[in-house]
User: Fold Arginine/agmatine antiporter from Salmonella enterica subsp. arizonae.
Amino acid sequence: MSSDADAHKVGLIPVTLMVSGNIMGSGVFLLPANLAATGGIAIYGWLVTIIGALALSMVYAKMSSLDPSPGGSYAYARRCFGPFLGYQTNVLYWLACWIGNIAMVVIASAI
Assistant:
């Protein structure tokens, strides 16, 4: 039987599938016909992105195992650097999400 701590862990396979799903989900806006013009270099770009996303997910997995308090990036930055930089981290993350979504809409409308 597993303990409560094991019930809250995310394994390597689910993390890999989540990262792959996020990367492929953004690829819907970049149609293969547009990527075909770049040749095989697009595959290298995907590989670099996958490696970076997996590294980031491993960092968050390790941080959450060290500090299980809720809040994600905000909680980690607040604990290390104080409430002001914790807040700034949260604001910048929010802005990055909005800018990324707008960029995907612009790319989708340009196709």
Remarks:
- The chain has a mean pLDDT of 78.
- The two ends are 52 Å apart (CA to CA).
